């Protein structure tokens, strides 16, 4: 009685202003209903865009400050060669080692870009801890330290930031379910993840339109139109906030393109130059094929070599330190770095390659060479021409970037290939400008070649061919604010993509292949004969099935014979008509609740029953025919996120098709 009295007293404890509190509660409920009348998703998408834009801007601001301090220390050392070398090499080595060690100590899933794993998750596969909130912190810190290394490491930000946006979207999705008090919905989670991909690209380049298109091309084999507006809304909020913060920080007077260029709009290119843009697309496609082949070979070689495999398994920071020390030593400015413009940052690389001047013609001009603030001067060397420095840059960065992709730290690889493509285009543009100094019509009005236009097309063509995307043509235009070369840029991107997609898998599909992740690669063969391949030719014919009348012994034998997550149930052994499926967990429960036929008589007697009586048999929602084509089965697996489908002929079970058979 005393206990009940205490409970009643605690329940009726007096609180001040009960009427005001009740009215406030009603008012808050009304505000919540009014705000969520248009859909609560839009508020969380807005929050996602603003949050990721703020983090991106803060990362860039911190990176620029720390890198400026490192450059100041390097300049203040003077002409002491040993100290300059130590200052140049130990700085990125220490940061990269810390990035690798810190991120790996928190979670091993924070290294790399994260896009291959995201593609697998969007296919319906559950990868544990890849979207965990602790991975978010590890990747933010690790990526910031990686980018502080500068161009010596030659790595970017796009891929990891897409992964970060996905992790933030997953966390906000859990917040949404707690606020709205709804059950967690997998379809809602997918919608947030699809929008997060566009936000990741938009908050790095300030390009919302190409961010949405890039996420569709790279991440989603099938895109739901209802996700289109969500992606655009979140990407626009993120890109606007990202550029608005630059205005608030007095970096710009108004919102402009991230890599603003000053190219001529009245006559951007001659019609005959289309031929050279096609050649640029062919060159980018061939170089992309070589790059993708070598990069995939390097990933396999590092895993198979006993020394590197041991270091990556036990001492990842040591492997990172050795590789970064090698790369930074090569880019040392008084050494080979002076032929690669190694003192430029990643952003300055693009800004210099998009320069409006023609370097090959004006390089000997002493007055123009003395122009203050000209980043092009880093590409000019007294003992080599700009053609030599650009060619040397392309040769060295080709293998250096491949080696850098094996580092176990958070890093992106889109920005480096974007810059590499711009260098290819710049070199070709300078060659064309040297061959035709007055343009392609020397007799008429002088219309000189603009090499920067070729750099724009090269950046889009090479990065697009490596990642299997065409939206990079629009990304170049949004990032630079220049639309004059849009058509030749799209032409070069299409040509480069046609060559690469014919011979090599995508850059983001290669890690999936090497890591053997559960993902369905695209059907590369478009020959007419591939459409004649039917399920009967590649299905799994030996399927462990159970009958409705099976007992303990048959269920135990099925569990021992196969490790499948679900088992087909047929009518009887003599009539293999498929009636449904039963999960492995239910079969284990069935065994635990029944007695083994050969059990000792002294044990506890369990009820005797059959599978059809004691287990819930789930009905079959989808089944394939033996004459279903390969392309139809492939698209069903992608659209419905299927893992395994049974094949029936006239209702009778004849086989099964899973990811292994489709691949």
TrEMBL record:
InterPro entries: CBS_dom_sf, Cl-channel_core, Cl_channel-K, Cl_channel_volt-gated, ClC. Keywords: CBS domain, Cell membrane, Chloride, Chloride channel, Ion channel, Ion transport, Membrane, Metal-binding, Repeat, Transmembrane, Transmembrane helix, Transport. It is a multi-pass membrane protein. The keyword tRNA-binding does not apply. The chain crosses the membrane at residues 42-59, 193-216, 228-248, 269-298, 318-337, 386-407, 413-436, 448-470, 482-499. The keyword Transport applies. Its main location: membrane. GO terms for cellular component: chloride channel complex; plasma membrane. One of its GO terms (molecular function) is voltage-gated chloride channel activity. It is found in: Cell membrane. Coiled coil: none annotated. This is CLCKB protein. The gene is Clcnkb.
